[in-house]
Amino acid sequence: MRRRLIAERAAFAAGDAAADASRALAAALAAVIVELEPDCLGVYSPMRHEFNVADALEADSRLAALDLALPFARRDPVAMEYRRWDRRVASLSDELGLPTGAGPRVVPDVVLVPCVGFSADGWRLGYGGGYFDRWLAAHPHVTSVGVAWSFAEIDAQAAAAAPHDQLLTLVVTERGVVGA
To answer: 2-178 belongs to which homologous superfamily?
Structure first.
């Protein structure tokens, strides 16, 4: 299922509807972030045609001064933390080769979590490494906002397959908020 959803996302990104959907998701996500009023927002660097959260941050001027952090993933032991990010092009990479912030370690109060798939009740299907799930389990007070395309909605049983899987607080798609 994971491979199929990633392939669907790639096909969607190449299609005519992607630009309008991206604008709609940017507006919906910006509205959610403004409403949540985070002190520090954990974001992610998009890969494999994930939604670029920078579009949402640019969609509302009230988000221009928001403190941001990017994940830093470790391979051994498998772990993730957030590092403050100054919005410049990330010049550092984590142990998985993903761009990360150069600032100090921080714990955001709201994190945006990319979803390969998601269920209406907040279960998330990711890439299978468990990085976000382990981090969320260690930080239960954090508001977790899944970011996905609406076509990636799946059955809850298909999304929650591992013991370490964590429920998201809500999911935002181009069609609006799911599971709030």
So the answer is: NagB/RpiA/CoA transferase-like (3.40.50.10420)
